[in-house]
Each structure stands twice: as C-alpha cells, then as structure tokens.
Design a protein that fits this description.
TIM Barrel; about 575 residues; binds magnesium ion; binds phosphoenolpyruvate; globular; 7-stranded mixed β-sheet; 23 helices
Length: about 575
Amino acid sequence: MKTILVEKTASKGLAMGKAFVVQRHNLKADTYRIKPEDADAEVAKYQNAVLDASTQLEELAKTSDIFAAHLEIVKDPALYDGVSSKIKSEYQNVQLALENTIEEFAAIFDSMEDEYMRERGADIKDVGVRLMRSLKGIIQDGFEGINDKVILVAEDLTPSDTSSMNLDYILGFVTELGGVTSHVSIIARNMELPALVGVKELMEKVKHGDYLILDASGGKIIINPDEETIHKYAVLKEEYQMRKKELEELSSLPATTLDGRTVKVYANVGNLEDVRKAAERGIEGIGLFRSEFLYMENTHFPTEEEQFEVYKQAATLCPKELIIRTLDIGGDKSLPYYTFEHEENPFLGWRAIRISLDLEDVFKSQLRAILRASAFGTVKIMYPMIISMEELSKANAILTECKNELSKEGIAYDPNIKVGIMVETPAALLCIENFAKHVDFFSIGTNDLTQYVLAVDRGNKKIAKLYDAFHPAVVQSIKRIIDAGHAQGIEVGMCGEFAGDENAAILLLGLGLDEFSMSIGATANIKNIIRNSSYQKAKEYANKAASVYTTQEVKDILSQYRV
Ligand code: PEP
Ligand code: MG
C-alpha cells in the first residue's frame, strides 16, 4: 500500500477501482531502406495492416460515422498505390512509406479551399495512426480496451482524448500534468467525477490494473490498499454520497443571504445533457454554455441547423437565461477535422474570438443559430478572449449582419438579445470602464484571467503553486471589473472556476458579484454558503481582502469570516 498526496483538488469526490493506465507509444516510422528483393514482403506487411485496421474499423463503424469514413479511406486503392510505389521504387521500409504517403495525402487536403475537404486531411492522419500501430504491433494504445469501470490514469488528457473515450466507464481521472482549470478538470467537474491532476511521478508509481482509492476531496491516492483501508473508504464514500444528496436538495432554493441579498447561482455546461441535469437540479440559468464542445465532439464544423437544434432545446430547458459563449477553440483545444498551425505559445495565439473573426462563415453560422434559438427563451451571447474595442465592434457588426439576414428571411429571433464579454485578458481588465459602456454584461473568466494577469500557465504543474486566484492582483482585478460594471448599471457574473470555490464565496459575494456560474456539482454547496451568510458582513471582509498585499493575507482574512 502506497499513498500519493496531491495539493490541489481538480474535482471533488471519492472513487475506488482499478487503474487503467493510458499507454502512448512512439508512432514515428523507422527510417531504414530495404533491399529490393524484400519489397514484396514489405508490401505484404502493409496489406496485413490494412486487413487488421479494416477489422477494427468495421466494428467501430457500427456506432460512429467517423469510423465508417475511416474504413473507406483505409481501403482506398490510391493509398495502397502510394505506399507500394514508395516501397517498390524507392525501397522505403513499410513504416516510412506509410508515413510519407499519409503526409502527402494530408497535405493535399489541407491546402484545399473547400472546408469539407480540408477536414478530410485530419481523417487521413487518423487512419495513418491506426495503420502505423498495426505495423508496429501495438495492441493497447490510448483508451482502447476500456470495457469496465476504471479510474483513468494518464500523463495528460487533451480535449480530443476526453471526447474520444466512453465516459460511462470512467470512475475518476488522475493525470501527471494539467492544472485545476485544464480541460480534464473541467470535464471531471461537469460530470461530477473525482479528479486529481498535476500528480508528480504518477506514471512511475501507478501500474495498469493496480487497485486505487482516489480520494480527490482529501487530495490523496492510495495504491493497492489493505482490506481495512478499503473498508474505511467504503464507509466514507457512502457518507460523502449522502451529504451530496442532502446538499443537492438545496439546489433549487434561492441564493439569498440572511440579510436579503439574492444572487444568481448558475451552471457551466458543455452540452445538452448538462443543461438537462442542471434543470433537474432546479438550477435556473446557464452562465456559460461552452459551445466549443459541440465543435470538438464532431466530424465537421457543426452547421447552423445542427447548432440551432441544440441551442433551441437548451433555451427551452432554461427557466431564466442561457448564456452561450461563442466558439472558444485554440489554446489547448483543437478540432479533429481542422488543422491548426503549430504555435509556440498557443494560449497567446490564435484562439477564441480571433478565430471567429478570421473564419467569418463559421462565426456567422454560429451567430445565426444562437439568434434563432433566442426566439425560444432568454438567450444571451458572450464573446471570449476579447482584448479590444475593435474586436467587439467587428463581432457586433457581424451579429448585426446576421440579424438583418434573418429579418429579411422572416425568421424569428430576439432583436434585443443581450451581448456580453468574458473578461479574461489584462487588456479587457485595463479598459474595463470603456467596455462597460458598450456591452450588456460581463462574465469574469478567472481561469484565463489568473493565468494572464499572473503570467502563470494554467496547466503547468511546475508552477501550479503560483497559479492562485487569491493573489491580490487577481482579487483587485475582480473588484475593479465588478465596480466598473456596476458604475454603468450592468450585471457582472463569473464563470471561471473561482466562482465555485467555497473559500472564495464570501469574497465574491462581498465584492458584489451578481451571478456565480460553476460546474453543476458545486452549485449546492455555494448556495448553501450564501444562504448562511450576511451580505453586509461579507462586504466588510471582501473590502479588507481587496486591500492587503499578499495572497496569504487574503486567505487569512476570508478564513476569519463569521456571520
Ligand atoms: C475562464 O477562462 O475562466 C473560462 C471560463 O473559460 P475557459 O476555462 O473555457 O477558458
Ligand atoms: Mg477562458
């Protein structure tokens, strides 16, 4: 029995089960050349790999169209011709011939004008990976072989990883890399699964099949525990679940303080399933619909019609309001069907609104879909990563174009739809008084705001200690944003993870935050805290916390809060 202690919890909860350690293999081709007389045998190896990949894909194609398309690619005679000619006339070994052929094919598709065709480049690369695995004799790779409930252990998990695995089998996540605001942490919180990330030496310490107790709330992983420990945690797990249920029953009560201030406690969601879950818990609004999930879990840019269907249903399910954030891709989030150029600093690169303004057609189909959904409920639009008034004006000009088009086509939408921005860049913060005059609401994105204000990568475990939203610079930023919004009479919300942090609730309440939006699982606890607090007292503590010099002082002041 071994125990690993972890400082920060990505998603609370307790899970017990076997570890599934995600193996990732080196898929680079061998580079040697073959003898001319070995060419036929080398081609035969390729044919076997095609057979092997086809068998796998036939099975997978039963449940997904993506794999049906891959099956066609793998059997394409042009691919065979490309590989066999490199073997027979250039004497490349089969792996090298495959790698080069896939690169050539993908490059042709990547350079095409037509967006649909460009997306096929990504499919070809995926097929290349499958064939290479077969050539290298790799049996278990990535998430293949998960057919029972497991605790997933991996060095890192990207958004495309989480969208390609069957989450029904996942009891919890543990990763060596990543921070509490990284994608896997957000997914875990959305799904109310326990998770610990940034776990040092994890891959050395945990072996595939080890029995784990993942005590995410307590920041602990116990490897191969003894019977007594298993029993102790089984009892704790039951207690934890009972407490969670009790709290959930509070979910639908209003978040009104003892002295009568009511704030909104909303949910952050990534799909319709989450919206349904929020509605079932009596959560009245969605403060952040991360629309990028619709794009990531897809084989193509979702069409206006496809998006409309989702947004419309979400709007209908939301009793109060639904804030849809326009596509926030880039950074650590890529699309399986679109090639992003390599960037040295992706978090400072082509992401979010920058992409939407460059890919205007993609942006327009999203805006039209959101506008159309606004005829079915209270829908608001939120732009991510805004740094300038120019961006805001451009985005709004495109929005106006979409409105005009819909009016001409006689399609219903809310002409007074509210438009807000995520405040998550230092530029937006420093010009916040100007932005307040031109938008209907703010939502503070502390996940990014913290990383950009502090210049601390939100996913880098080496500096995870420095990533702290209680830093006076972040606290004072939040105060300034709320004050600037209120001075112009607009509502200020927060959809960064800080909004769901129980230790921050008094601070945010006291600073005057109007709307707290967080993962569904955190709402009950935050409501409970607010319902047992005094707004006047919280104000005193928050103002003190916003005037001190160190992170520790901020935390100390807040921990002294008593009603
Ligand atoms: C944020 O930055 O706080 C936020 C909510 O956006 P995301 O985590 O999706 O970048
Ligand atoms: Mg963000």
